[in-house]
Backbone:
């Protein structure tokens, strides 16, 4: 994210080469550097009664569905954050949380920490969501960006578990 003014002293920010990267720094040399580090985001592949629940954010185009996502809170364990997001957005209680993986989402400058979360309860949508859909596990298909990479890895993990069993 680009800023115009230093949050420490309000001076203008300037582009500066630091360690081979262009960074925004304080033009008055107060020491501020905008490192523009990725923001940690938790994602939940929600499992409810043998199906995957996909959601559509209220601001997404019609027909677009994805995983439940949200920002990780300060000092929050990622798996707890993912379970919290499921409770906030769908009203479901997590009964089992398993790590899927970590995925850079460069387009949004985010690091996605993805979990498969088996849940119980009845779905109650938050205001952030406009709708949801239930997808049988054998019909679930990954998409090529964002949380879709976590879906692809989770599907591969399921194939491996089935082959071993």
Residues:
């Amino acid at each position: 994210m680009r800023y115009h003014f230093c949050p420490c002293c309000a001076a203008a920010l300037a582009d500066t080469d630091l360690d081979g990267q262009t960074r925004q720094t304080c033009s008055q040399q107060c020491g501020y550097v905008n490192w523009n580090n990725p923001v940690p985001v938790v994602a939940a592949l929600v499992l409810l009664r043998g199906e995957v629940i996909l959601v559509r954010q209220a601001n997404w185009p019609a027909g677009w569905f994805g995983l439940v996502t949200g920002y990780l809170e300060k000092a929050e364990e990622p798996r707890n954050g993912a379970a919290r997001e499921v409770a906030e957005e769908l009203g479901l209680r997590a009964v089992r949380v398993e790590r899927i993986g970590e995925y850079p989402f460069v387009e949004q400058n985010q690091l996605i920490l993805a979990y498969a979360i088996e849940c119980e309860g009845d779905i109650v949508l938050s205001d952030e969501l406009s709708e949801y859909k239930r997808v049988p596990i054998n019909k679930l298909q990954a998409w090529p960006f964002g949380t879709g990479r976590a879906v692809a890895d989770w599907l591969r993990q399921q194939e491996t578990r089935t082959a071993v069993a």
